[in-house]
Design goal:
It is a single chain. The chain is α/β, with parallel strands linked by helices. The chain has two domains: about 140 residues, HAD superfamily/HAD-like (Rossmann fold, 3-Layer(aba) Sandwich), CATH 3.40.50.1000; about 90 residues. It has eleven helices and eight strands. The strands form two sheets. A six-stranded parallel sheet has the order 5-4-1-6-7-8. Strands 2-3 form a two-stranded antiparallel ribbon. Strand 4, helix 7 and strand 5 form a beta-alpha-beta unit.
């Protein structure tokens, strides 16, 4: 079994909230003495994010978040003799929040404990800084559950690119037709898994939506996955 990380097993509500990263970057820049209009910075950051995503739409290569901050600042006319240092500090300050704020969904540890002896377990996550992801994994004891931990930053590509799934399968010694992917993002987790030949369970607490390719099952929360496995 392969799992997505944030939004599936882990929660970090303040960080996963839409637009939160821009607010954290702005907070760091302000603390460094920079007078930057938040709304203008947000608008410029979103524009650069869209441009990067469009460029990477075919192969889903990893995105340049540090470059995104710098370009957004330059596009609103901000200049500083230490611009690179300020941008790097904003990125570091933001990353430092992930180990502080990430925690399991309440039902996740019990699920992992109940299945780790019956399945080979791996984790495949889109995260833009491998060392930070690894700090979260170490803090929460992921090595006790997972035989493979794959981070997009370390591969250079993001889900749904099959390179991440192939890496996890190789490290677990598993085949696609005997593997289930569990995740909360349709395009990354369901489409990615189906393209490789795996089954997929989508975590979705909203109204059912007709999606193609269809997930093999939909769970309202991670706690329902154990029961769903019995029926797959």
């Amino acid at each position: 079994m392969l799992f997505d990380c944030w939004g599936t097993l882990l929660q970090a509500p303040n960080l996963l909230r839409r637009g939160a990263s821009v607010e954290y970057f702005h907070r760091s820049l302000t603390a460094s003495g920079c007078a930057i209009d938040l709304d203008a910075f947000r608008e410029a950051y979103i524009a650069e994010a869209r441009r990067q995503n469009e460029e990477a739409r075919t192969d889903f290569r990893e995105l340049d978040y540090v470059g995104r901050i710098r370009t957004a600042l330059e596009s609103i006319g901000f200049s500083h003799a230490r611009l690179d240092d300020l941008v790097d500090r904003a990125w570091v300050d933001y990353l430092a929040e992930w180990p502080r704020q990430s925690r399991f969904f309440e039902e996740a540890p019990a699920l992992l404990e109940s299945i780790r002896g019956r399945y080979k377990l791996g984790l495949v996550t889109n995260f833009a800084h491998g060392p930070t992801a690894r700090r979260v994994f170490d803090k929460l004891g992921f090595d006790a559950f997972f035989g493979s931990l794959v981070v997009s930053d370390e591969i250079g590509y993001r889900k749904p690119n099959r390179l991440l799934f192939d890496r996890a399968l190789g490290e677990l010694g598993s085949t696609p037709d005997s593997t289930v992917m569990v995740g909360d993002t349709f395009d990354a987790d369901v489409v990615g898994a189906k393209n490789v030949g795996m089954k997929a369970i989508l975590i979705d607490d909203g109204d059912p939506v007709d999606r193609r390719p269809a997930p093999d099952a939909v769970a309202r929360s991670i706690g329902e996955v154990g029961d769903i496995l019995e029926d797959l």
